[in-house]
Amino acid sequence: MKKVAIIMGSDSDLPVVEKAAAKLEEFAVPYEVHVLSAHRTPDEARQFALGAREAGFGVLIAAAGMAAHLAGTLAANTTLPVIGIPLKSKALDGVDALLSTVQMPSGIPVAAVGIDGAVNAALLSVQILALSDEVLAEKLDAARAAGRESVLAKNAAVEARFNKH
Ligand code: RP5
Which residues line ligand 1 (CB under 6 A)? Predict the structure, then answer.
């Protein structure tokens, strides 16, 4: 199976990024985690993206806050799918990172999830890998079914509490 690369702009991003790693663990998807910055280590970030396909990666997840150019800079140097996670920061609550991540020029796509959307980034990368992996696709179906059951149970509890007619 292809690996997922989880790349973050700073180790201060780990508390959010760890949730993506945990979700990939649930699906037994192989992954690596790296700190690479579009601004502080631009050469290393570029080299990583250039070699990512050859290194066996199928998807890159890029998490960054503030002027979040990491996903875009990786996408500029690979044709692997890149999923950006805009991270919440103090000054602008993550809107800065959201806009920096999502507003890519035509020709260099980045798939952006919501602010701090690490779980969805991991799930989207699993869905991409599942295009050519039936076992993974079945695991995704099972996870969706479990999610549905969980919400139905919560609904039953709420209805039992409030709807006493
Ligand atoms: C971004 O700047 C990083 O992704 C991080 O979210 C933010 C702040 O980084 P630190 O100053 O905490 O290293 O590049």
Answer: 8-10, 12-13, 37, 64-66, 87, 89
- Per the structure block, which two tokens stand in for 145? 């079914």
* Ligand 1 pocket test target in 34, 66, 74, 95 with most atoms within 8 Å of CB: 66
Percent of the chain past pLDDT 90, that is, above it, reads: 99
User: Which residues are registered as beta bridge partners of 84?
Assistant: 62, 112
- Whole-number Å distance, alpha carbon 65 to ligand 1 midpoint, is 6
Distance CA 120, CA 105 (A): 23
Q: What is the pLDDT of residues 127-157, one digit of tens each?
A: 999 999 999 999 999 999 999 999 999 999 9
CATH number of 3-132: 3.40.50.1970
93 Rama class: left (phi>0) / alpha (psi -120 to 50) / beta: left
Helix (H) or strand (E) holding 158: helix 134-162
pLDDT number for residue 20: 98
